[in-house]
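ok here's the first one, seq then struct tokens
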Amino acid sequence: MADDEPSTESNGEEADVEAENNKSNALNVLIIDDSSILRRLLSEIILNRYDVSIIHAENGKAGLSFIAKLNGKIDLIFCDLDMPIMDGKTFMKHMRENEKLKEIPIICLTADTNKKTILSCIQLGAKEYIVKPYNIKDLTNKIDKFLKK
């Protein structure tokens, strides 16, 4: 998905991140999606329901960079599958290869309803998947599994 807004990082070398509701003792939720519009929408949904800090990254490489900066202190990750620079499947492979990071729950975000895609997400370690466009009730039910209100 192309972004309507220009990115400050075009090469993905550094994490293009934004933090919302940054509280030092809050749970950290990382949203990785190349669409700033979808990142903002998901952030609003989460922040209206949970007391968390939200971190945004525009691709998997930027997400990994930010996770490294936080020493893996991420409580939940939402990850789009189809992104430039590093896609969601490659991101999940990197996460699962690292003993310290492989237990962080990942919820895949995809517009693809193909069962093979969903199965491949689960095989790569995703705990859940959400099909775009988001169904708010489905989304919050899945988030409830990982975050306490």
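and now the second one, same deal
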Amino acid sequence: MISPLCKICMTVMQKIGSESHAVIGKEADARKCKTKNKDGNMFDSVDGTAYNHEQGQRARKLFAAVVLAALDDAIADDKKYGNGPEQIARWARSRDGREVLSCAGIDPNERVVSGLMQFVAAGVRTSVALSREESERRMAALQDAEAA
């Protein structure tokens, strides 16, 4: 049976794949088209490159959200069953996990896997860890530790 996270990953990859084919086709059309704008400059290929860059950034953010969801699932499993760090390590080392991490702009190496395991072991949900209040609380605790 395929886990729900793997189903999400496959759906995301299928959508990104179909969008990238459409983008590649538009870029090829932009390269073929030699039309000039009213100033006489050719910006079609520059527009195509900018469009591709924006699409890539959106795709990277989407895969980063999948990584955050995997972390949240592992934290929930850690609280429920006590095997969260092992589960996130198994996922990150799997083929799907490496693919998702790469698409999110994260190099899937052992240092990253150990960092993911430490994050899950800490037990702080990603939404809390990314919130402003939590970062301010951590900074205040760090400054208090340095002052002491």
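notes on #2: Residues 4-147 form one domain. Residues 18-37 have pLDDT under 50 and may be disordered.
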